[in-house]
């Protein structure tokens, strides 16, 4: 009888001599991706956004050259004309009329003439390139030494220094009166246009990405073996998408036919071999007189029968109905089934009532294959006994299961190939003959149950099989 122990205490998973848990193991493909490796939607959106923003900047530059510059020159002409008219009017007016003229200009035109005192402090108009262009144009019209300020003695506005009969004066008016940029209208217009353009870019990127996203979902379903659910719409709007969908559907149909043929072929071959093997065993037991030869022949026939069982397991259809299953009961049943094997010692550490979403028969087949693999190839060095640990623990919405032996393990270069059909590892783990399908059956069954299967060497020797299944809600 197989000696095995059972612990209901929460297991130390993984223990100090175990490899990292399944979610911490290095994946088969690196999860570190470049920041530039973004999905199709964001790549299309960013490219459209860059194109739109570049177009807006080019348009703004063109407007500045074709609109702002002429308006700056026009503004300089208007200011120069106002200064010259004010100078001429005040220069030739008598003192009494001059007072009335200054008052009328301030009230009606919002133009104020003030003397330019030596103690006046002023801030030159030099806010941006456009202001400097206006000042340059005013100097060319009013003469060198013309002062244009944005504030005098702390009072803001547009200040232009000029002389009347040799006396320096200031002409003051509102700066907005000659604002060539139109205030903040351009900024609001640009922000509004930019927002609408980006929203349109997102809509266009979504429309372009939608059929590709459907293709991605269908590809994932076909990869999982659900060929019918992966059918795409063959009446697409664009010809290219329609052709891709038609080609994908035909490919999925062909894969489904190939899978069906594979299942039928393997099942048929396995079934047809069963009858002659049964007759051969019966005839061997009845006709061979040598007991030792008869035992060897019967053992060979039994081995062929087990290989046929492996083919049948491997050829099972992919579809299965997942239901809440007690992991404790499945493991107890698997350990009970191998109780007569004297070359195994099994240590089980499980919490109470651990439920997983799986098919009970498939899960039992998975654990039985792992136990058989450990019994054959995972014997503790120096002994004829395989020491096997079965540890499980619930973690969030997942259940992590580990089946570990203390054998010689395998080379790191062969770990990824152990679950491939008919692959045989190094001689340390191939002392016995077999079909080479055990771990491939485990990998296929776990994937059909929506889980993850992975193999790893332990730090203290031996091979550990990690299984990750969905946790069932009680």
TrEMBL record:
- Supply the InterPro entries for this chain: 2C_sensor_his_kinase, HAMP_dom, HATPase_C_sf, HATPase_dom, His_kinase_dom, HisK_dim/P_dom, HisK_dim/P_sf, RisS_PPD
Superkingdom: Bacteria
Record carries keyword Repeat: no
Region Disordered: what ranges? Answer: 1-21
Q: What GO terms fall under cellular component here? A: plasma membrane
In this chain the Histidine kinase domain maps to 268-473
Q: Where is the composition biased (Polar residues)?
A: 1-10
EC no.?
Answer: 2.7.13.3
Q: Name one GO molecular function term.
A: ATP binding
Q: What class of enzyme is it?
A: transferase
Describe the reaction catalysed, as an equation: ATP + protein L-histidine = ADP + protein N-phospho-L-histidine
Primary localization: membrane
How does the record say this protein sits in the membrane? Multi-pass membrane protein
HAMP domain segment(s)? 206-260
Give the keywords, sorted: ATP-binding, Cell inner membrane, Cell membrane, Kinase, Membrane, Nucleotide-binding, Phosphoprotein, Transferase, Transmembrane, Transmembrane helix, Two-component regulatory system
Which residue spans traverse the membrane?
A: 40-60, 186-208
The listed locations are:
Cell inner membrane
Alphabetical list of CDD domains matching this protein:
HAMP (cd06225), HisKA (cd00082)
Query: Which PANTHER family does the record associate with it?
Result: SENSOR HISTIDINE KINASE ENVZ (PTHR44936:SF5), SENSOR PROTEIN CREC (PTHR44936)
Q: What is this protein called?
A: histidine kinase
Q: Which organism is it from?
A: Pseudorhodoferax soli
